[in-house]
Design goal:
heterodimer; A: mainly beta; four-stranded antiparallel sheet; 0% helix; B: mainly beta; six-stranded mixed sheet; five-stranded antiparallel sheet; globular
Chain lengths: 116, 109
């Protein structure tokens, strides 16, 4: 079956531009997560969506970052006025149900963002 | 103190040996524990999950959980060069998932 998909796979942008990253979770998965991974580093939690509940935005590093999830499926992560320190791999994951964020997460291939 | 701690490595073992990866966590109410493998340039993929104290075996992989001591480990038997990757420990901390920084494993032929 289809896994988590993300687009674009790579994105090069100039400092100050806005970027949008897309995630299409596994069909039927109600929970969706965004993480950021800098080179050689671990996963940094950004935001979590569960069903129709208000998203957990506690990991967003600044107000330049926002995300939405339409119709309980596809999610878009937007970074406004990008900075060079935003360069990283942005990973999306989804899971089935969630009593918190403890269920098995299935990751997409990631979007590699480079801000020049 | 970090919520989920792993030795960053690198851990190097010869082919055929047992690789032992360890993870400690801070929250005693944690109920769910996961090991993910991440090859260089790729996204993490689930290897094993464990929820109860003791050992759980799946092929060459064995996860061990000790809630009293707050650690979870992953043993890889008969290590192969294809096992060379970063291994991420993930813990459900009171309903909130946290990942360790990962341990880089190299299996030398």
């Amino acid at each position: 079956g289809a896994g988590v998909s993300q687009s674009p796979s790579n994105k090069v942008t100039e400092k100050g531009k806005d970027v949008e990253l897309r995630c299409d979770p596994i069909s039927g998965h109600t929970a969706l997560y965004w993480y950021r991974q800098s080179l050689g580093q671990g996963l940094e939690f950004l935001i979590y969506f569960q069903g129709n509940s208000a998203p957990d935005k506690s990991g967003l590093p600044s107000d330049r970052f926002s995300a939405e999830r339409t119709g309980g499926s596809v999610s878009t992560l937007t970074i406004q006025r990008t900075q060079q320190e935003d360069s990283a791999v942005y990973l999306c994951a989804s899971s089935f149900l969630s009593s918190g964020r403890g269920e098995t997460q299935y990751f997409g291939p990631g979007t590699r963002l480079l801000v020049l | 103190q970090k919520e989920v701690e792993q030795n960053s490595g690198p851990l190097s073992v010869p082919e055929g040996a047992i690789a032992s990866l360890n993870c400690t966590y801070s929250d005693r109410v944690s109920q769910s524990f996961f090991w993910y493998r991440q090859y260089s340039g790729k996204s993490p993929e689930l290897i094993m999950s464990i929820y109860s104290n003791g050992d759980k075996e799946d092929g060459r992989f064995t996860a061990q959980l000790n809630k009293a001591s707050q650690y979870v480990s992953l043993l890889i038997r008969d290590s192969q060069p294809s096992d060379s990757a970063t291994y991420l420990c993930a813990v459900n901390l009171g309903g909130d998932m946290r990942f360790g920084a990962g341990t880089r494993l190299t299996v030398k032929p």
